[in-house]
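Lab notebook, page 48
Experiment: co-folding of the full assembly
Goal: obtain a model of how the components sit together before planning crosslinking
Operator: M.T.
Materials (sequences as entered):
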Amino acid sequence: MPPEKVQVFKSLEGWASQSVLPFLKPVEQCWQPQNMIPDPTLPFDEFTDRVRALRERTAELPDEYFVVLVGDMITEEALPTYQTMINTLDGVKDESGASPNPWAVWTRAWTAEENRHGDLLKTYLYLSGRVDMLMIEKTVQYLIGAGMDPGTENNPYLGYVYTSFQERATFISHGNTARLAKEGGDPVLARICGTIASDEKRHENAYAKIVEKLLELDPTGAMVAIADMMRKKITMPAHLMYDGQDPRLFEHFSGVAQRLGVYTADDYADILEFLIGRWGLEKLEGMSGEGRRAQEFVCGLAPRIRKLQERADERARKMEAHAVKFSWIFNKELFL
Ligand SMILES: [Fe+2]
Ligand SMILES: [Fe+2]
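Observation: model returned without errors.
Model output:
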């Protein structure tokens, strides 16, 4: 990244302290996983009664639902990868590991908030007895080992466009797993997914605010960055997932998420449209020719994505449903 762009983030340190850090919640006001799972210090009978009640609640949820929830949980569990990715970004990375720079403070505290998501989902899934924890743990180990490359090229303009998009994507998918848990008879799991979704929303607001500030200070640079990320397509953070068995695991998991309506191609287009509105991209002015071309591309993209998706759906309908085995649910088959 050119030095003058690094300078932009240096000059925004005061602003970040005042306008970004308040999106964090003080630890003492945060929920913890233990608030939402059976307390192991209860007398043993009471503890097992609560676990039994948890299992009764999850009994009616279908295997498809568990595949999606497991995939979401594994995505959360690869958190070291996301912190690493943010710490590749010039001008905002944590230079010492405990840097007082507000960008670094944000990244560490964001990571610490996020860390509760995987912990909570994992414990709940463990207690449910519905999933193969050993295969799930293997998948997490493979995934963290594989990492990810979202194409952000050490550039925080690109990095914060990516995180704005991603946090909204997780807000939507956890919101949908909450709704499905409620419909499937587990209000506690619904509350868990909903609580996680509200963290994601808060994080989305912080990242979107950073991009909004960049659009104000450097409209061409920020607009070109948005177009660049959209051209590359926003890859899902867990796209390199593998369980040691299925080389197309991510595609299969995404297929189930799409079918259940937890996260779909339509959501992708919706997020793009939402961010275009949130950032006022259609009315953005004061850009060079390059910026205006980027604007034109981004603002016309959502209808094109939807059209392509309609055609893909059409093709999918004509294809015969095929069975896919998921190790996470003891190699049971689901139809895709
Ligand atoms: Fe999360
Ligand atoms: Fe998140």
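Interpretation: Residues 187-217 form the longest helix (31 residues).
Next step: discuss with group before ordering constructs.
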